User: Which sequence fits this backbone?
């Protein structure tokens, strides 16, 4: 498969993290015989070209959200078992947190239909449940529940519910595993996402995609300031790397997405984590990128990747 991927060139920690995502893209291309033409650019809001764009910096994120017609952002949020000790909640409350959040920027008409179809397709491959967050402050209220129920009739066993923001937050504290796919307007969605990210205790592990027109912008959900840990090689690149897995799913390269997530789980199980997750025993940005890339290539001694795909049991996109 041939794909054209734009890479936003960024300085400091953002550039260091992006380099690891590029390593993973190259490893996937080599291992699965794809051709990813990676084009570096400096202008995030120039006319997007190609099939997808990768970014890692906060300045770029801000430019995308203020300069382009973003329709929706999507973030998979999960608590990884090896990192459960980082959650501020007791295990019985944080265990099982694994949902996909759609934060809607622009709704109505074809945009709503597009988001609904995506959410239904994702839910069908997960636990077949969609929760709509009713937001009384939404300036453009849309009957998401009714539209979802109508479109969801084609999906056997699909469950649709609508709850208020406060109820959603209370449920997240007590029974986070009850959520599967969530759709919320941007204000309510951002609030729930911020709280859920805190529950995971590993915010830089979360990937995201922002859809602006027909162009998907992939990157870590929490992007990096240019000066943040600049040139110190200490930042956590996993959120950016997992956004590459989301990109592979977007390209319908699901095995390639799975091996990336399996590689990430392998690093967690073996304690290869960045400084934000372990202040004492940690590994550099570049080392984590190298390990994940080597796993994808099958070059880690004594570890056959094909026999260990079962490590990845998550259903996040």
Assistant:
């Amino acid at each position: 498969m041939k794909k054209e991927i734009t890479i936003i060139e960024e300085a400091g920690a953002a550039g260091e993290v992006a380099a690891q995502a590029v390593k993973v893209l190259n490893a996937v291309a080599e291992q699965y015989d794809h051709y990813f033409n990676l084009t570096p650019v400096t202008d995030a809001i120039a006319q997007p070209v190609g099939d997808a764009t990768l970014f890692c910096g906060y300045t770029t994120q801000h430019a995308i959200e203020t300069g382009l017609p973003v329709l929706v952002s999507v973030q998979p949020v999960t608590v990884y078992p090896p990192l459960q000790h980082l959650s501020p909640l007791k295990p019985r409350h944080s265990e099982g947190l694994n949902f996909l959040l759609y934060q809607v920027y622009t709704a109505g008409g074809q945009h709503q239909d597009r988001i609904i179809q995506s959410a239904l397709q994702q839910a069908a491959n997960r636990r077949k449940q969609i929760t709509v967050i009713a937001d009384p402050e939404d300036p453009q209220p849309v009957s998401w529940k009714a539209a979802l129920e109508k479109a969801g009739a084609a999906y056997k066993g699909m469950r649709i519910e609508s709850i208020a923001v406060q109820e959603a937050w209370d449920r997240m504290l007590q029974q986070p595993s009850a959520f599967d796919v969530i759709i919320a307007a941007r204000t309510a969605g951002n609030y729930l996402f911020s709280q859920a990210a805190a529950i995971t205790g590993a915010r830089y592990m979360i990937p995201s995609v922002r859809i602006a027109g027909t162009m998907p912008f992939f990157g870590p959900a929490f992007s990096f300031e240019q000066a943040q840990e600049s040139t110190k090689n200490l930042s956590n690149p996993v959120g950016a790397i997992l956004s590459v897995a989301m990109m592979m799913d977007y390209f319908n390269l699901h095995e390639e997405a799975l091996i990336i997530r399996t590689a990430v789980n392998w690093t967690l199980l073996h304690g290869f984590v960045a400084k934000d997750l372990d202040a004492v025993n940690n590994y550099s940005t570049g080392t984590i990128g190298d390990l994940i890339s080597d796993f994808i290539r099958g070059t880690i001694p004594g570890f056959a990747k094909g026999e260990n795909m079962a490590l990845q049991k998550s259903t996040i996109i």
Summary: The first strand starts at residue 2 and ends at 8. The chain is about 40% helix and 20% strand. Residues 306-317 have pLDDT under 50 and may be disordered.
